[in-house]
Specification:
CATH architecture of the largest domain: 3-Layer(aba) Sandwich
Number of helices: 12
Structural class: alpha/beta
Number of domains: 2
Shape: elongated
CATH topology of the largest domain: Rossmann fold
Radius of gyration: 22 Å
Length: about 280
Amino acid sequence: MLQEITIAIVGPGVMGKTIATSLIQTGRILPGRIIMAGPNLERLKQLQAELGLQWSASNAEAASAADVVILAVKPQRLDQAARSLKGALKPGTLVISILAGAPLAALEQKLETRCLVRAMPNTPARIGMGITVWTKAADVDETQHEIAAEIMRTFGDEIFVADEGYLDMATALSGTGPAYVFLFMEAMIDAGVHMGFPRRIAEQLVVQTLRGSTEFYLQSRGHPAQLRDDVTSPGGTSAEALYYLEKAGFRTAISRAIWAAYQRGIELGKGISKQGLEG
């Protein structure tokens, strides 16, 4: 389906490149049908050399030639990008936004279109192992729904939700989730070094432990609490470690951190909507 359309990606940053790379490497679309747009000519030429895609320094020019426009700019640059796109979108052009905290209502007002998809991918999308939660506005038809889903699947797994409220939740849980995992990894590695392991060995032990534990969970399909109980012998090392983690409020800290991220996402969304009303 994607092979017959042209996709413009507005924003040649890390996620813009990730999207283009995923589409090309999975064979969903030919490089020549992707137009990367943005003001950084050096970056655009670099991406053309690496991926073989087209590029344009004009967001409006790229959008006017596309069937699908993917908005991959930073949230603080939304207004600038929206101004450059307003009036350039052909009737029926599908716009997919991956901006954290930008609600459909604000995007509709800024871009003057209701043919919108809002998506929240995460960092592992860079290697095709991500998870993307997404929703759509009223004017997205069934064909465009399938196009959007196919694009999301190039990043990894995808989950469509009818309730846009889940997008802010996904931002806090899966969108920000890799940061929690990397912090946990860093803490474990540093603990290994503190005990006396060379950092190289500590990293190998931690990485494979996390990878193996995740794969074991997927294959066993047991509840995490049961799997944890299975490796916790009475009076043993795991029991001692878990006692200190609970005493330090580890579980509560994780829960509160995710809730804080969720609340911050809602605040950002209100700020974007307010800017739209004031603009």
